[in-house]
């Protein structure tokens, strides 16, 4: 019986690869958009803009304080009631972008605040404008403590793509659910699903660990 299951699973591999490609597309676009949004909000909220900082803080607290499943339901099911109708792919990307931006914003903001204020004061004394200070002094220094948690957040965001299957997007998780209806052995089916997620996540996990280890070594040398 197990041999029959494995044979059927082997025949289903093309569908799993299609689902994996869908997962990679959703995750890749969401990572790019949430990184851009998180950097913009993080840099701006690190400045002395009280009203803006308050709005960003509310946004971050709401997103971090509510389940991602609820957020994607709001985007896919509630927004159409307000005249905003999105396809499953667009809903998944938008939801993940909103979700990821909040966490990346916190990472960026925390790294920027860790830079001693004397650095910006020295840059200002050299005649640099705010943009030059950010580009040449603050951001380059903030990247080192920022990268390990940032890459770790990328891994979490990729794993969160599994939730988009609930709105009908045929990602690798949904392919697993569809396959288990034909191959009544959830262990081997979702072992394959887990393996595919591991394949795309492990390089980032490895990179995050290396960056964190290197940062600790460099900090100990100071």
Tally of extended strands?
0
- Percent helix range: over 70%
Number of helices: 9
User: What's the average pLDDT?
Assistant: 85
Secondary-structure element pattern, one letter each: HHHHHHHHH
- Write out the CATH superfamily name: MetI-like
Low-confidence stretches: none
The structural domain count equals: 1
CATH overall fold name: MetI-like fold
Helix-strand category: mainly alpha
Q: What is the end-to-end distance? A: 61 Å
Describe the sheet with the most strands: none
Please give the CATH class.
Mainly Alpha
Question: Which structural traits does this protein have?
Answer:
222 residues; mainly alpha; MetI-like fold; 9 helices; 0% strand
Give an overview in words.
This protein has one domain: Orthogonal Bundle (MetI-like fold). It is built from nine helices and no strands. 81% of the residues lie in helices and 0% in strands. The chain is mainly alpha-helical. The chain starts with a helix and ends with a helix.
Can I get a quick summary?
By secondary structure, the chain is mainly alpha-helical. The protein contains nine helices and no strands. Helix 4 crosses helix 5, helix 7 (130-160) runs antiparallel to helix 9 (186-221) and helix 8 packs antiparallel against helix 9 (186-221).
